[in-house]
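lol forgot to send this yesterday, sorry. struct tokens for the thing we talked abt
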């Protein structure tokens, strides 16, 4: 298909970006810290803060008081009127903190996962975390090219499936310290052993 006009550069760019999105989600499933970012803010009026434009997923929110940070919990829709604890919830394009009077004048840190680093022009380089898996992007785009040409894609699909298996098994970056269950009751009086 080299030098072919059957598939243009715009289509290939679109297919590569689609593959970047798929690869991004695969890597996030293995380790959602790949593209972790923070946003510090202070509530000066009301109880909402606009979410960053590059936000993909909210990971957590801390109440920041000088050098001391306290993790906040999310509130469910059913808990929206609970004023017993400071909590947060992404609603639309804003982060809402409740109760409002507890949020006012306080500083917070939002931890979030950025959106997939898509390519917008030919001079851009691939994100460093995606670089080891660029073959996946090429094979995925090649499948689309061959499919549009109505050619056999079975060899490319097998190659892509092999790459998916390799990506899934190798995407975890810290195998020495696997994820573990968090003790949400640590420090509560009823969580201490009586023995």
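and heres what i got for the seq, position by position
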């Amino acid at each position: 298909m080299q030098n072919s006009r059957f598939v243009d550069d715009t289509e290939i760019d679109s297919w590569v970006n689609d593959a970047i999105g798929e690869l991004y989600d695969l890597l996030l499933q293995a380790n959602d810290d790949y593209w972790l970012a923070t946003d510090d803010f202070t509530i000066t009026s009301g109880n909402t803060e606009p979410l960053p434009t590059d936000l993909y997923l909210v990971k957590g929110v801390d109440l920041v008081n000088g050098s001391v940070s306290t993790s906040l919990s999310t509130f469910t829709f059913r808990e929206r009127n609970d004023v017993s604890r400071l909590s947060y919830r992404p609603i639309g394009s804003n982060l809402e903190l409740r109760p409002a009077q507890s949020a006012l004048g306080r500083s917070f840190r939002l931890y979030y996962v950025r959106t997939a680093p898509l390519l917008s022009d030919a001079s851009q380089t691939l994100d460093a975390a995606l670089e080891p898996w660029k073959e996946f992007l090429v094979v995925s785009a090649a499948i689309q090219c061959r499919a549009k040409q109505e050619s056999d894609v079975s060899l490319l699909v097998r190659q892509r499936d092999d790459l998916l298996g390799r990506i899934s098994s190798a995407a975890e970056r810290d195998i020495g310290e696997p994820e573990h269950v968090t003790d949400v009751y640590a420090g509560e009086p009823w969580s201490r052993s009586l023995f």
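Confidence is low (pLDDT under 50) at residues 190-195. anyway ping me if u want another try
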